[in-house]
């Protein structure tokens, strides 16, 4: 499909992710990446364009709108992947794009890669090394972002995997780095760490990396010795599991229990599986990529641990946590408990009381609060 009309950015939706003022489905960086790569994309054959880090489909669908076919895409966030599928269907472009994990097949033989720069340098390193290992030797990577989220360290990371790096002029507070000459590529491997008796594994982009963030450390120190729901068939749930530290801790502390961990981040899910394996509990820890706890039935668990994020992509928002509290309440049986750690300044207690049920403080330090909410 080659359209004479400009790509309709305004028709893109974030759904099923958050929709709110200030949260957009496409921005100036997406437009700049597409503009700067236009000639290279026009010369690419079917299957020679790959897209990484596309938030809600602007890059992949913009490339398809201009005639690209066989476009392979990886998005870390499941909500973004589902939004892209919705947007592709709405624009009649579903047959031109396909979503893949961050594996060799994503970039194998690609000559053009459109990359929305991740905020994590470790994530960028994983992506760049994968492209260098498996893309066509003539590949050109168009890596862009908003200036406020870019740093000179990104140039250094790209230079580990590419011999030439050019920088475009800035436009509308956005810029594109253009990388050529791939070398020394490799498949991503998780970073390794140990903390509080846990072996931690983290692929690039997973929250906190291969270490315990201070909120999770406080939560682990105060989790109950006898979690609500004593049945061996009743799963202990690590909601928004990140690298799986809480899931591994629960499995080690309760050898007779099954643990269910979920996160919508592909990097988090891969990390949590690696963490479970490193601690020898992967036979009792199920890790799922899911938006909220949608795969869990109503009233199907009695214990959930949660360290809720407060970012949707690069945007800070207070709307994520209430959605997570509501889904935790749906999954909990009456009397079941939600153990939650949160930055004290966010003052989530009233929301927990309203959405889940009676809430008490279990611990507090200079920055974080741990609460226990009993499902009504």
UniProtKB/TrEMBL annotation:
Residues 10-180 form the RlmG N-terminal domain. Keywords: Methyltransferase, Transferase. InterPro entries: RlmG_N, RsmC/RlmG, SAM-dependent_MTases_sf, Small_mtfrase_dom. The keyword Coiled coil does not apply. One of its GO terms (molecular function) is methyltransferase activity. GO terms for biological process: methylation. The keyword Methyltransferase applies. Gene3D superfamilies: Vaccinia Virus protein VP39. Residues 201-371 form the Methyltransferase small domain. This is Methyltransferase. The lineage of its organism: Bacteria, Bacillati, Actinomycetota, Actinomycetes, Micrococcales.
